[in-house]
Amino acid sequence: MAVMNMIQALNDALRLEMRRDPRVIVMGEDVGRLGGVFRVTVGLLDEFGPDRVIDTPLAEAGIIGTAIGMALYGLRPVAEIQFADFIYPAFDQIVNELAKYRYRSGGQYSCPLVIRTPSGGGIRGGHYHSQSPEAYFVHTAGLKVVIPSNPYDAKGLLLAAIRDEDPVIFFEPKRIYRAATGEVPEGDYTVPIGKARVEVEGKDVTLISYGAMMVECREAVQKAREKWGISVELIDLRTLLPLDVDTVIQSVQKTGRVVIVHEAPRTCGFAAELIALINEKAFLYLEAPPVRVTGFDTPFPYTLEHDYLPDTGRILKAIYETVHY
Fold first, then answer.
1. What is the pTM of this model?
2. 130 CB contacts (<8 Å, ≥6 apart)?
3. Cα dist. 200→156, 207, 236, 251, 322 in Å?
4. What is the rounded CA–CA span in Å between residue 213 and residue 262?
5. Which residues are identified as catalytic?
C-alpha cells in the first residue's frame, strides 16, 4: 500500500469517485485552478474540467443552496467550505433545507450532498480559522457528521459519504492534514459511517475522542501505561452522527470509567451528550464520574491556542484522577 498523508488520501478519494461516477461534482471557493486553500482538490480541474470542478463566488449560502439544487436533480455534489468558521452564512441552507428534504417530502426526495470543511485549531489561524463547530450540526436531525483522524479513515469515510443518499458534513482536522501519515489502499474501499473503532483495548478506563485530538490521546494512552501501569481503552468515534452507541456503552461497561476529549468548547460540546448517554445506559457500571477534557468557553484565542487546546498533560491528569477516584 502507498503511504499518504490526509490531504493525499482525500484527493485520492475524490479523484477515484469522480472517475467512477460522472455525477460527482466538486465545487467551492478556489477548488479549481488553485486546488483548494489546503490543496485537497489539486489536479482535479485538469482531469475533469470546469463543468465538474467549479470555482464559486465567495458566498457560502450560495454554494450550499446551489449544491442542494444539483443533488435534487440527480448530481452528487461535494461542496467545500474553505474553513469551518465560514460555514455559518450557509447555516440556514444546511439546517432548514438540506437536512429536512427527506423528512419534508415524506421520503420522496433525498439530498446526497457532502460538505467538506477543514476544522479545528493548532495552525495559528486565529479565531476565524480555528473553530470546531461540530456540535451545531450534531444537534440537527437529518444530517450525518463525520470527523476522521487518519488518512486511511479519511479516504474510506469520504468515499462512503459521497455514496450516501443523505447529506453528510465532513469535518477535516486541518492540524493533521499533513502531519498524519499512514498506509492507504490505492483502490476502492469504504469505511462505514456510524461505526467507531476501538484503537487500543484496555481494562481500567475508556478514553473517547475524534479528529485531531486522537494524536494527544494516543500519547496519553502510552504515557499512562508507562508511568502508572494504567490500561486505557481508546475509542476513535469517527462519526458523531449517527453515533456508534454500542461500542461506547460496551467499553464503559467493561472499564467502569470514562474520559472524553474534544477541542470544541466545553458547554454543550459533544462530550456533554456522551456523558448523558452513558448515564442513561451504563450508570450502574460506573466506578467514577465521567470526565471531559475540552477547549474553554471562550472565543478561540490566537496567541494562547496551545493553552486552549487539550494537551497530553491535561488528558493524563484526567485519566489518573478518574482511575483513582
1. 0.97
2. 85, 120, 121, 122, 123, 300, 305
3. 20, 10, 9, 11, 18
4. 6
5. 129
